[in-house]
Amino acid sequence: MPLAGLLQPLLSQLNSGVVLLDAELKLVFINQFIARRADLQPEDVKGKSLFEVFSDLPQAWLQRKLHGVLSLQVPAFSSWEQRQYIFKLPHLRPLSSDSAYMAQNCSMLPLTAADTGERYICILVEDATDAYVYQQQLQHSVARLQLANRTDGLTGVFNRSYWQQQLGYEIQRAERYQHPLSLLLFDLDKFKQLNDHYGHLGGDAVLIEVARLVAALLRDTDLLGRYGGEEFGIILPETDLTGAMQVAQRLCSAVAAHRVAFEQQQLLATISLGVTGFTSGLSSDQLIQQADEALYSAKRQGRNQAVAWRDSQSVYLKKVK
Ligand SMILES: Nc1nc2c(ncn2[C@@H]2O[C@H](COP(=O)(O)OP(=O)(O)OP(=O)(O)O)[C@@H](O)[C@H]2O)c(=O)[nH]1
C-alpha cells in the first residue's frame, strides 16, 4: 500500500494542526491547518527554530515541557482550560467570543524514526474554541443570574435578602475582630403623598434617583440595600457611630438639595434616617430594630433629619412611658 504517498494529503486535509520537531526543537514539518492560520508556507519554515518562527509561544514553559517529552519519552498534554492556547492562531470562525484566538488542546508526542532511530516530537493542535465559547457563555449567564439574585429590580441596589445576609457577615467580622460597624436605615418622607400627586411612576423615579444619589456618596465597602418599599438600609463597616452620623447628615442634606426630573417637572424629596452602632452580642435583628427605632424618632421629630439610636432610645423610652 502506498502509505507514504497518502500521508502528505492526509496531513494537509486534517482538521487539526500538526507540528513536527527534531530533537533540537527545529521545525521539520507543519501541516496546512497551521500554515494557513499562521500565514506561513510549510517549505519556508523547515529547519528553522520553533521559537523563531512562532515568536508568541510561551517559550520557557514550552521548552521545559518538550525537553521532558524528549528525555522521558512520554507524551505531554496541555488543555485550553489550563492555558487557552499555545500557538497564537486566529480561530477563523464567526463565533462571538471575547478572544480572537483559537482555544487549543495540544498533545506533545515523542516519536522515534524507525530507520535512523532519531528522536522527534509531534505537537498535535486541536481546536477547542467551541468548548471555550460555551464555557464563557455559561460563566456569563451564571454571573448574570448571581447579579439578578442579589439586586433590587427597580433601583439596582442590593435586595433585602442579600443585604441582610451581608449584615450577618459584617456582624460576625465586627464581633471577631472587635472592629466598629454601624447601621443606617432611611425612609423617604411623605412618600405616599408624592405617589398620590405624581403617580406611581413619579414615585419610582424618585426611588431610583435617591438610590443612585446615595450610592454615589458612599464608600465602595459600604453596602446599600432596599429594605422595603421606600425604606433602605446601609451597612457601614469600619465606621463608628460618630462617623455614621456624619454620613447620615451628608445623605440627608444631599437628598434634600436634589431635584428629580420627572415629566418636565422637578420633584423634591427628603429622607429621615435612623443610625446605630454595633455593640458586642447584638444580633442583626436587634441592630435593625435599633436603627428602626431611631428612624421612627427622626420621623416623629419632624422628618428630613438623622437620629442616632443612643439619642432616640431616650425619646423612645419617654414615649413608652
Ligand atoms: N412608587 C412606588 N411607591 C412605593 C413603592 N414601594 C412602596 N411605595 C409606596 O410608599 C408609600 C409609603 O407610605 P407610608 O408608609 O404611609 O409612608 P410615607 O407616606 O412615606 O410617610 P412617612 O414615612 O411617615 O414620611 C406607600 O404609598 C407605598 O405604596 C415602589 O416601589 N414604588
Architecture overview:
The protein has 321 residues and is an alpha+beta fold. The chain has 2 domains: 134 residues, PAS domain (Beta-Lactamase, 2-Layer Sandwich); 169 residues, Reverse transcriptase/Diguanylate cyclase domain (Alpha-Beta Plaits). The protein has 11 helices and 12 strands. The protein is elongated, with a radius of gyration of 33 Å. The site of guanosine-5'-triphosphate has 16 residues, from β6 and α8.
Helix content percent band: 40-55%
How many separate domains? 2
Query: Which ligands does the model contain, each kind named once?
Result: guanosine-5'-triphosphate
Give the termini separation.
106 Å
Bin the strand percentage.
15-25%
H/E series: HEEHHHHEEEHHEHEEHEEEHEH
Largest sheet: 5 strands, antiparallel
User: How large is the radius of gyration?
Assistant: 33 Å
Number of strands: 12
Indicate the low-confidence ranges by residue numbers: 314-321
Oligomer: single chain
Structural class: alpha+beta
CATH superfamily of the largest domain: Reverse transcriptase/Diguanylate cyclase domain
Strand order of the largest sheet: 2-1-5-4-3
**What is the correct CATH architecture of the largest domain?**
2-Layer Sandwich
Q: Class of the largest domain in CATH?
A: Alpha Beta
Total count of helical runs of at least 4 residues: 11
CATH topology of the largest domain: Alpha-Beta Plaits
Q: What's the overall average pLDDT, rounded?
A: 93
Shape: elongated
